[in-house]
Amino acid sequence: TWDSCQFDQFTKVAGGDEFRGNQADRQRHRFFRKYKYLWDKYQRTACVGCGRCSRECLSRIDPVAVLNRLHQQQSLPAPKSSPAAEYRPELAEILYVESLTESEKLFRLRMPHPLEFEPGEFLEISVFGQGEAPFTIASAPERSDEIEVVVRAAGTLTQAMHRLRPGDTVGVRGPFGCGFPLERFNGRDLLVVAGGMGMITLRSLVLGLLARRDDYGRIMLLYGARTVDHYLFRDELLSWHREGNLDCRFAVTQGDNSWGVTRGDVTHLLKDLDLEPARVTALVSGPARMYRAVNPLLFRWGVGEDHLYLNLERHMKCGLGKCGKCRINDICVCESGPIFPYARVKHLKEAIER
C-alpha cells in the first residue's frame, strides 16, 4: 500500500477529523518533526542518511535540497538582544496624529531606541486589551527613534487606535520582514506603481530613493485611487510633483476629479511611458486585483521577471512565521517578505490572484 503526506486526507482520522488538512502544514510538520523538534530536544535528527525518502517520494521532494535551501535563506536574523525579545512588546509614545482621509490616520511614534529598517518592513503594534496587528512602516528608512505608520479604521483594534491621542502609548514589536533591496536598484530607472493603501509602503520607498537620488536614473510614480479624497499623503504628492525629482502621474476611478488627473484605474497610466523597458525596475504595491491587471502589462512592455518587485502583504498576525496565517504554500510572507521579486513567487498563482 502506497501513501504520502502530500495526499489529501493523509491526516484524516476516525470520526472525520482532519487535524492537519493543509498540504503545506503536513510538509512543514514533516521537516520540523524530523530535523528540528528532535534536534532542539535531543541534539539529533530522525535521519540515518539512507536516501530512501528522496528515492521513493511520490511527489519527488528531495529533503536534502529543501534543507539546504532553508539553510541558505536564513529568513530571520538572530535576535539582537535578550532571548525571546522579539515576542515582547516595547512601549512607544504617540507624538503626533494626523487624519489623511476619512478612514486613515497617520501616527508618529517615539520608540525606546532608534530603529533601522528597509522600506516595506513592518511593525507589530498592540493596544492593550484590544489585540495586536502588523502595520507597514511609512516613514523614511533612516536610523531614527521616530517611526510613522498609517492605520485604517476597520476593526476593533484599529478603531481603538483611532481613539488614541498624543501622549498615549502602544506596544510595538519589530521591525520584521524583508523590504525593498535599494542597493539593487542603483543606476536603473524605477517605475513605482501604487494602488490605494499600497502607497503606505511606497511612501517609505520613495523617501528612501529621494534621500539617495543621485544613485538612480529616472523615477516615475504612478498612483491610482478611487477618488482624489482617497489619495494618501496628498501634500507630499503635490510637493514631489512640483519639485521635479520624480515624475508623478495620478488616476482616479470615481469622484469629481478636482486634480484634473487621468480618469480610470492605474493601468491607464501605463500607456505611452517614455522609459526604456530594459533599464526599468518596477516596484508595485496595491490590492491583488491590481496585480492581475498590471503585471501582464509590464511583462508585455518588456520588464523582466527579475526586475519586478511585488508587495504581498497578507492578513499577517504574529510576524514571526509561527502562526501560519500568512503562509502561501512554501512561503511565509511575514518572514520571507512581504516584498518579493516576481521570479521568487511566480509559481504561486494564489499569491497574486487571491
From TrEMBL:
It holds the Pfam family FAD_binding_6. It comes from the Bacteria. Transmembrane segments: none annotated. Residues 35-69 form the 4Fe-4S ferredoxin-type domain. InterPro entries: 4Fe4S_Fe-S-bd, Cbr1-like_FAD-bd_dom, Dihydroorotate_DH_Fe-S-bd, FAD-bd_FR_type, Flavoprot_Pyr_Nucl_cyt_Rdtase, FNR_nucleotide-bd, OxRdtase_FAD/NAD-bd, PyrK_electron_transfer. GO terms for molecular function: oxidoreductase activity. Residues 87-182 form the FAD-binding FR-type domain. SUPFAM superfamilies: Ferredoxin reductase-like, C-terminal NADP-linked domain, Riboflavin synthase domain-like. This is FAD-binding FR-type domain-containing protein. It comes from Geoalkalibacter subterraneus. The lineage of its organism: Bacteria, Pseudomonadati, Thermodesulfobacteriota, Desulfuromonadia, Desulfuromonadales.
